[in-house]
Design a protein that fits this description.
Number of helices: 2
Number of strands: 7
Strand content: 25-35%
Distance between the termini: 72 Å
Oligomer: single chain
Length: 153
Amino acid sequence: MTYRFPGPSYMERVVNLPPDSAATALDLALLDVGSGAPEGHEHWCLEVDRGRLVLELPSVRLETPALSGVCPLRRATGWIRSTVFLFPVELELFPWSSTASAVGLRPSGTRPRRLGSDIYYRVGAAGLDHLRGEMLRWARAAASARRRTPTKA
């Protein structure tokens, strides 16, 4: 019997930040939330309804080859967990264009089963939306700090 998963399992959100700025903003967003973790726990965690998205910190910094525009700038592994299901996931940040980036989430290893896939989609989508918002918030804060910093002539 062949099992078919309902729909594509890769999710992404476009972030209106240039790739370099997006990479820095993602680092700050993940480390800011992770700094409140108990001693010895290096995870970013977002509770959503009946599930949780957890990413291991720090995110892996990757160097983008000069000729490739699709190599991830950042990659982090983690999982989506509910009271019943556990889905290993991988988060990545990659250039979308010269002025935008995309943050994506995919199952790591096997794709989520049909039963429980609603948890994967609901928690994953909420996690991506939250991360996009945090990245934009950090980018605005950095831009505001640059405007307030006096420059030497």
